[in-house]
Amino acid sequence: MSKLAIDGGSPVRDINVNTFPPRGLITEAEKQAALRVFDEAISSGNAFGYNGKYEQQYEKDFAEFMGGGFADGVNSGTDAVFVALGALDLDLFSEVIVPPITDPGGCMPVIFVGCVPVVADCDPRSYNTSAEQIEPLITERTRAIIVAHIAGDPVDMDPIMELAKKHNLYVIEDCAQAHGAKYKGRLVGTIGDIAAFSTMFGKHHCTGGQGGVVYTRNEKLYWQAKRFADRGKPFNIENPQGNVQAALNCNLNDLSAAIGSVQIKRLPEIIAKRRKIGETIKKELESFKTVSLGWQVPDTESVYWFLKIRLDLDALTVDKETFCKALQAEGIFVNPSYRHIPCEAPWFRNKKTFGSSGFPWNADGYKGERNPQFKIDNAIKVTDEHFNIHIHESFGEREISDILEASKKVENAYLR
Ligand SMILES: Cc1ncc(COP(=O)(O)O)c(C=O)c1O
Question: Between 20 and 30 A from 244 (CA), which of 17, 101, 153, 254?
Answer without folding.
Answer: 254
